[in-house]
């Protein structure tokens, strides 16, 4: 058990059976009345951010979570199979809890957030940027670099990304996994 005096950014709390990260907090001591703590909490599973005010000194249930590196092996009917990079233990998690899952390919390293008490995976994050090769896109026309127009391109794992007109099939590009957007051509 922790109290409001123990709050810090990134701390995980169990509130009514749901897990929340503290995004920010502020201890307030008004001139009149008791002290209180204002917090912004982010739901671990849904990502929704809520505001909550606590009386000073209230006890809360702290949840111990760990971030571990796992390597993506393959997908099957059970979900995505991952292997711990240190212990070689394998786990299977649903694709829906992986942020940026459409850009996963074999061998990618993901950061999995695990509830330390029950050893269950809460969610997983892909690296912020991945480099992928374009397998198909419509050919660009010489001189089409002046406008900011985008065209669809299929990358090596089958996902579709919007790229500038000058990008052609066979090139490697850097993709932002948070929103699936084109960042730049990959440096050779």
Short description:
The chain is 0% helix and 55% strand. The chain is mainly beta and 188 residues long. It has three domains: 2-62, SH3 type barrels (Roll); 65-125, Beta Barrel (OB fold (Dihydrolipoamide Acetyltransferase, E2P)), CATH 2.40.50.140; 129-185, Nucleic acid-binding proteins (OB fold (Dihydrolipoamide Acetyltransferase, E2P)).
Structural features:
188 residues; OB fold (Dihydrolipoamide Acetyltransferase, E2P); 17 strands; single chain; 6-stranded mixed β-sheet; SH3 type barrels; 6-stranded antiparallel β-sheet; elongated; mainly beta
What does this structure look like?
The chain is an all-beta fold and 188 residues long. It folds into three domains: 2-62, Roll (SH3 type barrels), CATH 2.30.30; 65-125, OB fold (Dihydrolipoamide Acetyltransferase, E2P) (Beta Barrel); 129-185, OB fold (Dihydrolipoamide Acetyltransferase, E2P) (Beta Barrel), CATH 2.40.50.140. The chain is built from no helices and 17 strands. The chain has strands at residues 2-3, 12-15, 18-28, 36-43, 49-55, 59-62, 65-76, 79-84, 90-93, 98-99, 109-115, 120-125, 129-137, 150-155, 160-164, 172-176, 181-185. The protein is elongated and about 70 Å long. The N and C termini lie far apart (52 Å).
